[in-house]
Automatic annotation (TrEMBL):
Name under which the protein is recorded: Spermidine synthase
InterPro entries in alphabetical order: SAM-dependent_MTases_sf
Organism the protein comes from: Sandarakinorhabdus fusca
Gene3D superfamilies membership: Vaccinia Virus protein VP39
Assigned keywords, A-Z: Membrane, Polyamine biosynthesis, Transmembrane, Transmembrane helix
Signal peptide span: none
Length: 742
């Protein structure tokens, strides 16, 4: 057997690792997109999927580590055999034989779906990075650090997949084609792995015996923690980003791409210098940006999102660079990667499963930032700062700093909003304590925590300032607050309003917010008695606080479709909201994904259907596709009316609905409601955009006439003739993003 030239060895292993990592990270957003029509568009879908990917990645690394007990020839034979066995599950597709969630907890159901659909291929591909490095170490021209360049190559392939999917693959190909293309890539990877194994067998096992010293328990713990914190920050940052915009691959992959970029730089040629810069920049960025972790402001959500991504990158690079600097010799290579994977999986477990069960708010994010502050190997900012800790009075600083920071934080929080100058002075004092503590992790982390607590943390924990109610479920965090000045009670999901009820006398049943009497849905729902003979069959998707139920009239039959049981509890709790109790006590509530539940309803069983199923400002994409509109058409009576809410801070959905209406033969009109500048006490009408759709122009004229509006109040939709209707198989939100200059 002719031996492969040394010059071809590195390119072969680089190609194998690149292809494997590209496939590994391509399947993540691709498959999550595939399961949306079955589970919905919550950011939690991606977080649970990420937990699965990290857990299976851990399994792949454990498998690669265990293979090292075998002779190289046995490793190659076993790995290629399992490769072929995993290939029997192709092409990539969501398993249709697994029943829909039903009463099964959504997180467990999604984990099961991922396991049976892509578990085998994901496991076998995930082993490529550590396994190829171990095989490469058999080369007689390897040096002690040679295999580690393949880790940077692995992360480069991963990042390429994450960039390519939302920008090139998703907008240009259908899901079914993507599944077959990925399967073809799996075959290519099998051939590359076989060639790499053959090349490794042809070369002397120069480094196999060089096992190096034993790995200590302290090292394992440190590797785990250095991987755990960035992994957790990845998911907590992703949750914020996708909660307020949309749960879809373009936005899922931004934090993940930044996270992988930190790995690439840390393990690349300039990793030492980049790590030094990141370690130096991380403490001030934590103080400037991380201290805002408890601050919530819907008007500045873009700023917080961008700052969160920047902070994630710098902290991840600092910790991953530290991890790279502490890598062992080649003999302990697979164990090293195994513990990195353990840390990644634990970070995912904490954010995806533990935090939603333990916390009623996103406390995991500030906790992870404090953990990062404890792990950063930062140096003192200057020699004078270091001398403060080493002179004879240094012991006093160690004892005095924690209570001083605590006292200043409590004082600053109590003054915040009333004595701005005093509060600002307290924050400057705490920041000064934090700056002189850089290089002393416990004290720096404490001062940093106190700064976060000053900027919203104490208020978050203060029983007197607590909301009326807060509920956290798999699908999000719901907060109910009272505004005494406006005399209203508000329901918020993330930073977005999801319902308002008046606390003013005599106005408790008046619809408000996006559903006010002047809104499109308010005008059409009020006209139902003039459009349909009794009993009119009314339905809406997205229960919220139950506001729409107050358009119910005697003799009508009302149904609400709601994905989250927690939301049903909020709407039915008379101590929180009374819309349902007062206006429609007989409201039928169907729990489950609206599209799946509507598909089970009888044909033509609804006269009016309103679709308003946003999670915060995030849109369940599967409810805005052509297939979804066909489900709505199926359940509507021939003269039925469909109403779709498209108010959104970031996306212009009017052309999307226009393209679907054009393709499916709907007549569509849009009503933009802008309430007056002065509102009476207890009234909280908000700007809204609702689209009405009917099967014929004549029926649309009847609907507008029944509302009493002028025809000009209901305008034709803006339609870009080049726009493609969204489908389950093909959708891209890139064209829908609003221009920041418009």
């Amino acid at each position: 057997m002719q031996r492969m030239p040394a010059a071809m060895l590195r390119p072969l292993f680089v190609a194998t690792v690149l292809v494997g990592s590209f496939l590994l990270f391509l399947i993540q957003p691709m498959f999550a997109r595939m399961v949306m029509p079955r589970l919905g568009g919550s950011s939690s879908v991606w977080n649970v999927a990420m937990l699965f990917y990290q857990a299976v990645l851990l399994g792949g690394y454990l498998y690669a580590h265990a293979l090292q007990r075998l002779a190289l020839r046995q490793q190659i034979a076993l790995h290629l055999t399992l490769f072929l066995a995993a290939g029997l599950t192709l092409p990539v597709a969501a398993a249709t034989w697994l029943p829909d969630p039903g009463t099964t907890p959504p997180a467990l159901w999604l984990l099961a779906l991922l396991a049976v659909s892509i578990g085998p291929v994901f496991l076998i591909v995930s082993a490529q990075a550590p396994l190829m490095q171990a095989w490469f170490a058999h080369s007689d021209d390897s040096s002690a650090d040679a295999p580690f360049f393949l880790y940077a190559a692995s992360n480069t392939g991963s990042l390429a997949a994450l960039v390519a999917y939302p920008l090139l693959i998703e907008p240009g190909t259908r899901l079914a084609v993507q599944g077959w293309a990925w399967s073809a890539g799996f075959v290519v990877l099998f051939l590359l792995v076989a060639l790499a194994g053959r090349a490794a067998l042809q070369r002397p096992a120069a480094l196999v015996a060089a096992r190096g010293g034993a790995v200590t328990g302290r090292q394992r713990m440190r590797w785990t923690l250095l991987a755990l914190v960035p992994s957790g920050l990845l998911l907590s940052t992703t949750s914020h980003l996708t909660t307020d915009i949309m749960a879809m691959p373009l936005l899922w992959v931004i934090p993940l791409a930044v996270y992988l970029l930190s790995f690439i730089i840390a393990f690349g040629g300039g990793g030492v210098r980049a790590t030094r810069i990141a370690v130096g920049a991380a403490p001030p960025l934590l103080l400037l940006l991380g201290s805002l972790a408890f601050v919530t402001a819907s008007a500045a959500v873009i700023f917080y999102t961008v700052s969160g991504v920047v902070l994630l990158f710098v902290v991840a690079l600092a910790l991953h660079g530290t991890l790279a600097a502490e890598r062992p010799d080649v003999g302990n290579l697979t164990e090293y990667y195994l513990w990195i994977s353990v840390g990644g999986a634990l970070g995912g477990l904490f954010c995806a499963l533990v935090a939603p069960l333990v916390f009623d708010w996103g406390y995991e994010h500030p906790l992870l930032l404090v953990a990062a502050a404890l792990l950063l190997p930062a140096r003192p900012v200057a020699a004078w700062a270091d001398r403060l800790w080493t002179w004879r009075g240094g012991a006093a600083i160690r004892w005095l700093l924690p209570p001083l920071a605590l006292a200043a934080s409590l004082a600053g929080a109590s003054w915040l909003g009333s004595q701005t100058d005093a509060s600002l002075a307290a924050m400057v004092f705490i920041m000064a304590l934090a700056v002189v503590s850089i290089g002393r992790p416990p004290w720096f982390a404490w001062a940093f925590l106190m700064l976060m607590m000053t900027l919203g943390g104490w208020k978050q924990l203060d029983p007197a300032a607590a909301p009326v109610d807060r509920t956290r479920s798999f699908f999000g965090i719901y907060t109910v607050r009272d505004s005494q000045a406006r005399q209203v009670r508000e329901l918020q999901h993330g930073t977005t309003l999801h319902g308002v009820q008046s606390l003013a006398a005599g106005k408790a049943t008046r619809p408000t917010s996006y559903y006010a009497p002047g809104s499109g849905v308010g005008r059409v729902f009020s006209a139902a008695p003039r459009l349909f003979a009794a009993p009119a069959r009314m339905a809406f998707v997205g229960l919220g606080s139950g506001t729409l139920a107050c358009y119910a009239r005697p003799g009508q039959r009302w149904t609400a479709f709601e994905l989250d049981p927690a939301m049903v509890g909020i709407a039915r709790d008379r101590h929180l909201f009374t819309y349902v109790e007062r206006c429609a006590p007989g409201l039928r509530i169907v729990v489950g994904d609206a599209r799946l539940m509507l598909a089970r309803e009888a044909v033509g069983s609804v006269d009016m259907l309103a679709v308003d199923a946003f999670s915060s400002d995030a849109i369940p994409l599967h409810l805005m596709t052509t297939e979804a509109f066909r489900v709505y058409a199926r359940v509507l009576a021939p003269d039925g009316v469909l109403l779709v809410h498209i108010s959104n801070r970031y996306l212009d959905l009017e052309p999307v609905v226009a393209a679907i209406a054009r393709a499916e033969g709907w007549t569509a009109r849009v009503r933009r409601h802008q309430p007056g500048p002065v509102a009476a006490p207890g009234e909280a009408d908000t700007r809204s955009i609702w689209i009405a759709l009917t099967r014929s122009p004549a029926r649309m004229e009847q609907v507008i006439a029944a509302t009493g509006d002028a025809p000009a109040d209901w305008q034709a939709l803006r339609d870009s003739r080049g726009a493609q209707p969204w489908t389950d198989d093909f959708a891209s939100i890139l064209p829908a993003f609003k221009s920041p200059f418009r």
